[in-house]
Design brief:
It is built from 15 helices and no strands. By secondary structure, it is mainly alpha-helical. It starts with 15 loop residues before the first helix and ends with a helix.
């Protein structure tokens, strides 16, 4: 395996405009991945497919993300942050164009895979770029900006498309036209971003490139990834079938409300990472697990009582819990990984999360087909609660470690 060059010592000063441009690129790419959320009932009606097909359409996005991370997760460490971010934006534009032109289900599937690849490229590259461009004393702020742009984009995409679908014309076309314009603006913004990695000619070697987590942070990394992955599984189900639940169970055909459910969940996930800094380290993940159990109970209550209020509250609670776990995991990565390994480690973290996001979504789709949406949702909620309790039990069973050892681990 060729050596990976270290990050350059800021060849040009990183201006606020440069950092804002990186954050915009991350926001736009991630927003494009959630634009379909309020539109799934419309696609279902237009193309005549089942709820199972809706969940499969969502899940192929996660497959695209994981495949991209496993093959291209270290690319920005080798060829530079800026070209990888540009490639991600071009893929995001291609996905938006495919969605806008879609007339059959295969178009949607291809667009979702392309969108997943764009997310895979931008996640590691933009997060690492923001950290590279920040002085050491502002790394925590850079981490906050990266997560805000990531989760803010996920929230913004679903809120934007929900509003446009509800109150503007051409609901299956106009949101993608807007996304194409935003992507073009983000591409132009990259001209203001200095490169922070010295490129190598071996960066484009094809084939599978294993992701890597340094041994010193593996225990903290795996614990946070498992808890955050549980929350991501709930986010995936909310994103894929909340519109179907509101329309078929509650008879609420309101696209903006569908967008609000997912938007609140993602926005709360961004807020939740701040809780990871306020809560004492040993309590952050147990608190996240408790939040996941509460969120699962609220979502099950919404299904059984046929009420949107517990669904909205459950989405917020799940987001806060997931964000706490995500913030803990990214803190372990950023504090324990050298700059030349940062892109790969961040990509590995998100690969685990998206892997845990995709499989349960399809499982829920299969359950909906075998039973009904309400039963499938309740069963899924119970399984999430059981998993969260298991993670919490594992955390409380660990022996306390000296603070110095914890500092090295994180």
């Amino acid at each position: 395996m060729p050596s990976i060059p270290p990050a350059l010592p800021s060849p040009t000063p990183a201006t606020p405009i440069a950092r804002a441009a990186v954050a915009l690129a991350l926001w736009v790419t991630m927003a494009g991945t959630t634009v379909p959320t309020p539109l799934y009932p419309l696609y279902q009606q237009a193309f005549g497919f089942s709820p199972l097909t809706v969940t499969v359409t969502f899940a192929v996005y996660a497959v695209g993300v994981v495949a991209g991370l496993l093959t291209l997760g270290r690319l920005s460490d080798r060829i530079g942050r800026r070209p990888v971010m540009a490639a991600a934006l071009l893929l995001a534009a291609a996905a938006a164009g495919l969605f806008e032109a879609a007339s059959t289900l295969p178009w949607l599937l291809v667009a979702r895979v392309v969108s997943g690849l764009a997310a895979a490229l931008i996640t590691g590259a933009a997060t690492a770029a923001l950290l590279d461009l920040a002085p050491p004393e502002r790394r925590l702020r850079a981490q906050t900006l990266a997560l805000a742009a990531n989760m803010g984009g996920l929230a913004g995409g679903t809120l934007l498309s929900g509003a446009l679908a509800e109150w503007a014309g051409s609901p299956l076309r106009l949101p993608w036209t807007v996304m194409l314009a935003l992507t073009a603006a983000a591409l132009l913004g990259l001209f203001a971003v200095p490169e922070s990695v010295s490129p190598t000619t071996t960066g484009l070697r094809p084939g599978f490139q294993p992701l890597h987590v340094p041994a010193g942070i593996r225990p903290a990394f795996l614990r946070a990834a498992l808890a955050a992955g549980s929350g991501f599984a709930v986010l995936g189900v909310l994103t894929s079938v909340s519109g179907l639940f509101l329309a078929t169970v509650l008879d609420l055909h309101h696209h903006a409300l569908t967008g609000l459910v997912a938007g609140l969940a993602f926005a709360a996930t961004a807020v939740g990472q701040l809780l990871a800094r306020v809560l004492p380290g040993p309590r952050a993940l147990p608190a996240a697990c408790a939040g996941l159990v509460l969120a699962a109970a609220l979502i099950a209550t919404a299904l059984l009582a046929e009420s949107p209020a517990p669904l909205l509250l459950g989405a917020c609670v799940n987001g806060l819990a997931t964000g706490t776990a995500v913030g803990t995991g990214l803190g372990a990565v950023n504090g324990g990984v050298e700059p030349r390994q940062r892109g790969a480690a961040v990509s590995t973290f998100f690969a685990v999360l998206y892997a845990m996001l995709s499989v349960p979504v399809v499982g829920v789709g299969v359950l909906i087909r075998a039973t009904d949406l309400r039963t499938a949702g309740v069963v899924f909620s119970v399984l999430v609660a059981v998993l969260a309790v298991g993670v919490a039990a594992g955390l409380t069973g660990r022996r306390p470690r000296p603070s110095a050892a914890l500092a090295e681990e994180a």
